[in-house]
Amino acid sequence: MKATMLMNGSDTKSSAGLSDLEVSTPGGLENGGRMAGEPPAQRDCRPREGREQTVARFRLLWESRRFLGRVTGAGLLFSALIALLIPSGYQSVARLMPPDNQSGSGGLAMAAAALTGGAAGLGGIASDLLGLNSSSDLLEGVLNSRTVEDQLIQRFDLRKVYGARRMEDARKVLASLTNISIDRRSQIIAITVTDNSPQRAAAMAQAYVEELNHTVAEVSTSAARRERVFLEGRLQVANQDLEAAEKEFGQFASKNTAIDIKEQGKAMVDAAAILQGQLIAARSELEGLRQFFADGNVRVRSAQARVAELEIELKKVGGEYDGTSLEKATQDDSLYPSIRKLPLLGITYADLYRKTRIQEAVFETLTREYELARVEEAKEIPSVKVLDSPNVPDRKMFPPRTLITLLGAALSFACGVAWVFGCTKWEQTDPANPGKVLAQEVLVTVKAMMPWASRNGFSKSPGSEVRGPKSES
Fold this sequence. Notes:
Largest sheet: 4 strands, antiparallel
Radius of gyration: 55 Å
Strand order of the largest sheet: 2-3-1-4
Number of strands: 4
Structural class: mainly alpha
């Protein structure tokens, strides 16, 4: 036994030495990278088993080719149907050039502050003053604001178009279909709107530009805007005051026949002088006739009547005002005011005329200042320039129907292959396997709960196995 052990020990040592030699030498790896110490039968078995399994899998797929073809065809038709049912999407793009930095960067910052909130707005203004932000970034914030989105939703009735019951849902859908980007090098703003209707997509892109200008002009709080708002309110008050003064002056002039007191006074004095001269001449003529004729003579009575008429006219022109009240002096129904009324009417007339002229001057001054303020406001309000107007797209951008169809067919083929391999694995599993027994019990219970499955011919006996597609040669 000792000899045997010595011989075995020597053989073991020699084998070990040989193995160490083979591993250490460059020729220690034999054909195909196999270890020299590995038994030849074991070395050749592993690649052969892998090749046989691969061939068996391909053979199984070849035998199930008709099943895989039907599954792939069904998936192809189903995915094509889905691709056709997906509505087409059209994109319309509008590109805007940013406003000049000298024309209203402060007003634009104020607009962004009013729309984005207090703290964020102050941070944006500070960034703009430090040169960390551009006007394009502020315009992007205005375009993404809730104010602009609500205007577009109401303008195009997007709640009905998107099928959204709430405004918040409509805003989310609109934001997902709108892309606003900025080219950091050129600062050009691109507004991309996607919609099922090409005409509506172009109209919405144009509406974004219009609402941007309108919103910025509406919320701008520049000095020119504040001045314009003040002058606008003051101009309305001045207009009302001028209308009231003109109405009062007109009523006074119409009631007292006071057209122009100065000219009327001159005309009345001239008329009174003429009447006074005619009265003196008529009295002289009457006295001369009395020297030759009696008072009952026709010529004397005629001269007396003329003198009396001239005296009455002279009293009307001169007036008989005693200085007690203006109401008493204006109770005369004569066509023109008398000379005695003119000084008193002249005071009221001059007061009303001066008040009217003052209101006219105020109104003219405010109108001129208001127009200048509007011009200054227009200079300060930033207005974007449209580089590319939104056009009506004639080519759909979504969905890629060919790609969806091919992906659906590929997915169906992959599912069919997985089904074939799964069914084969299921059939090869031992019936006594606990997992398989549990799965059969669950399947039987589910089928018992669905009696319509038996009527359609899909039920099997409780002890039957689930089998895959039949092998076809």
